[in-house]
C-alpha cells in the first residue's frame, strides 16, 4: 500500500528505479531488489496460467467486487485470489472456534450457521478443523452461502481431509486467500488471515476457544475493527470454553441463540434481512460418509481400535492405539463430522 501511494499504480511501482523504491518508508534493499527482479513477465504468465487452470480470479481494493467492509481498515489486503461465485458485499457473519472442540461446540456451530444462512447471511470462517469446518457444513446444509478465508494459497487444501468440503464451498460460495498461489499453511499465515475473517463480517461469533486460541485473536481484531463480538458460554471447567467465558466477562455479548444475534444486528440497523426464515424445526439431513476422501494415518489407527458391535470409549481407544486421549478425541470428532462414526451413550459407534 505504501508503494502504491508513492507511485500511483502497480505500473508506477514496477517502473521505479532502485533508488526511488528505497526512498519509500520501510522499503529495504531486499524488497527493492525483489521488485526489480519481478519485472520479468514470465513469472506473471505462470501465475495467470495457474489461475486459469484452477478457475481462480483476483480482486483488488479498487475493484467494485472488493468487500466494502474491508476498505476502511488500515491493514486491508491489497487484494485476494478467490475461487467460486460469491457476493463479497452481502451481509456476513463469521463463526470461529477451536480445532479441539467438543460435540457441544460442533453442534452449536452447525445450528448457528444454518440459522444465519436461512436468514440470508453469508457464513464466513477459515475452513480449519473443528468449529470452522462445522460452520461451513451448517451453512451448506441449510442451502446457504459460505466463504472460507484460507491461511494458505487458494489452490491449496488445508487440512487435506476437507478436500470435499472445499469443493462444495466453491460451488456455494468461495474460497479466498491473499497469499500467493501455492503458499503452504504455517503458524504465521493463520493469524494474518484472521483480520479478513472478522473484517468481512458484521459480527464475529466465537463458539469455543481456549484463552490462548487463535479465535481469541480474531475476536480481538473484530473488536478493534468496530465489529460486534459474540461468544457462546460453556462450562467453567471446560478448556474449550475458557476463552468464550473470558470474552463474555470482558464485554462480549453472550450468544444464547443465532436468533438473538440476528435480532441484535437488526436492532442496531446493521442489517436488513428476513428474520422469519432463521428458525427451522427441521434438522439438516445427514450426509453420507464420503469414500472419496482417504483416511489419515491417525483416523485409520483409531478406526482399527473400534469394535463395530458395541460402543467404544475414548479412554479405551487411547489405550489400544497408544494415542493421547486429547488427540484421540480430536480424531474422533473429525470422523464424526465425516459421518464415519457417531456419538452414542458417551462413546462412539461405527
Task: Give me a quick take on this structure.
By secondary structure, the chain is an alpha/beta fold. It has helices spanning 2-7, 10-15, 18-22, 29-37, 41-54, 103-118, 131-141, 163-171, 189-199, 214-224, 239-249, 258-267, 297-304, 314-321, 325-337, and strands at 57-60, 79-84, 92-96, 122-125, 146-149, 173-177, 203-206, 228-231, 253-254, 342-344, 347-349.
Which SSEs are present, and which pair or pack?
Layout: H1 2-7, H2 10-15, H3 18-22, H4 29-37, H5 41-54, E1 57-60, E2 79-84, E3 92-96, H6 103-118, E4 122-125, H7 131-141, E5 146-149, H8 163-171, E6 173-177, H9 189-199, E7 203-206, H10 214-224, E8 228-231, H11 239-249, E9 253-254, H12 258-267, H13 297-304, H14 314-321, H15 325-337, E10 342-344, E11 347-349
Parallel strand pairs: 3-4, 3-7, 4-5, 5-6, 7-8, 8-9
Antiparallel strand pairs: 1-2, 2-6, 10-11
Average pLDDT: 88
Anisotropy-based shape = globular
Give the SSE string.
HHHHHEEEHEHEHEHEHEHEHHHHEE
The neighbouring-strand order within the major sheet is 1-2-6-5-4-3-7-8-9
Derived from helix and strand composition plus strand pairing, the structural class reads alpha/beta
Compute the number of helices: 15
Rg over C-alpha atoms, rounded to the nearest angstrom: 22 Å
What portion of residues is helical?
A: 40-55%
Distance between the termini: 53 Å
The fraction of residues assigned to DSSP E strands is 5-15%
- Largest sheet, strands/sense/barrel: 9 strands, mixed
Count of strand segments: 11
Uncertain runs with pLDDT below 50, 5 residues or more? 273-292
Amino acid at each position: 500500500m505504501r508503494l502504491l501511494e508513492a507511485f500511483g499504480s502497480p505500473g508506477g511501482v514496477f517502473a521505479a528505479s532502485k533508488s526511488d523504491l528505497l526512498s519509500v518508508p520501510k522499503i529495504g534493499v531486499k524488497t527493492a531488489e525483489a521488485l526489480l527482479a519481478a519485472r520479468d513477465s514470465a513469472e506473471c504468465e505462470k501465475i495467470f496460467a495457474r489461475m486459469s487452470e484452477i478457475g481462480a480470479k483476483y480482486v483488488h481494493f479498487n475493484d467494485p467486487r472488493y468487500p466494502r467492509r474491508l476498505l476502511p481498515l488500515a491493514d486491508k489486503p491489497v487484494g485476494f485470489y478467490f475461487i467460486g461465485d460469491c457476493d463479497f458485499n452481502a451481509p456476513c457473519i463469521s463463526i470461529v472456534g477451536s480445532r479441539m472442540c467438543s460435540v457441544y461446540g460442533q453442534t452449536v456451530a452447525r445450528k448457528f450457521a444454518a440459522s444465519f444462512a436461512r436468514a440470508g447471511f453469508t457464513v464466513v470462517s477459515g475452513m480449519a478443523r473443528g468449529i470452522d469446518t462445522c460452520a461451513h457444513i451448517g451453512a451448506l446444509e441449510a442451502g446457504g452461502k459460505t466463504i472460507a478465508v484460507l491461511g494458505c494459497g487458494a489452490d491449496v487444501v488445508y487440512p487435506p481431509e476437507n478436500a470435499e468440503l472445499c469443493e462444495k464451498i466453491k460451488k456455494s460460495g468461495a474460497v479466498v486467500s491473499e497469499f500467493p498461489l501455492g503458499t503452504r499453511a504455517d503458524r504465521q499465515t493463520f493469524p494474518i488471515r484472521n483480520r479478513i475473517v472478522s473484517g468481512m463480517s458484521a459480527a464475529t461469533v466465537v463458539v469455543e476457544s481456549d484463552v490462548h486460541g487463535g479465535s481469541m485473536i480474531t475476536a480481538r481484531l473484530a473488536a478493534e475493527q468496530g465489529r460486534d463480538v459474540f461468544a457462546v458460554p460453556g462450562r467453567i471447567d471446560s478448556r474449550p470454553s475458557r476463552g468464550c467465558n473470558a470474552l463474555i466477562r470482558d464485554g462480549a455479548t453472550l450468544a444464547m441463540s443465532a436468533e438473538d444475534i440476528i435480532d441484535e444486528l437488526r436492532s442496531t440497523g446493521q442489517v436488513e434481512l428476513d428474520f422469519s426464515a432463521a428458525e427451522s424445526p427441521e434438522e439438516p439431513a445427514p450426509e453420507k460418509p464420503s469414500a472419496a476422501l482417504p483416511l489419515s494415518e491417525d483416523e485409520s489407527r483409531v478406526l482399527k481400535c473400534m469394535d463395530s458391535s458395541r460402543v467404544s470409549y475414548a479412554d479405551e481407544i487411547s489405550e489400544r492405539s497408544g494415542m493421547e486421549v486429547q488427540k484421540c478425541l480430536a480424531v474422533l470428532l473429525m470422523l464424526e463430522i465425516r459421518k464415519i462414526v457417531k456419538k452414542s451413550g458417551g462413546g462412539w459407534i461405527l
